[in-house]
Amino acid sequence: MATTMPPWLKTVFGAPNALYRHGMGGMLGKRFLQLTHVGRRTGVEHTVVLEVLRYDRSNGEAVVVCGFGESAQWLLNIGANGDARVSFGRTPHRAEVRLLDTDEAVDVLRHYERRYGILQPVLRKLLSKLAGFDYRGTEEDRRLLVEKLPLMAFRPA
């Protein structure tokens, strides 16, 4: 599902990209990662900065959400050629990619929401916009959301 973003939201989402572009992506710690992928039709290398919903220090796995659903270009490109490299501010390293199953994705989303504390209403509004329905943070809503916006995990290869 493709959705259009208001200009102010594009600016907010673009801030981490600017930091990575200027070699300062490491300042973001493990909160964001830069994904490098290769175009399925063009063969051109692309990068996108994604927010990390969960990071597992024990194995280096980072979980992100496909905010534009199954039509996200990076998701389509990785699906076509399997080439994914991830960076947390340094040199990109090859990554294994996996789609989280519904139960694991719901659990990740639940914990991610808790981290937002008093800002949960803002997060829910954003998730509503991305998912195309009024997301209230219920278990039923979480299940519906992860069906529309898959969660993907990247682990060092």
From TrEMBL:
Protein name: Deazaflavin-dependent oxidoreductase (Nitroreductase family)
InterPro entries named in the record: F420H2_quin_Rdtase, Split_barrel_FMN-bd
Short name of one Pfam family: F420H2_quin_red
Source species: Promicromonospora umidemergens
Highest taxon of the lineage: Bacteria
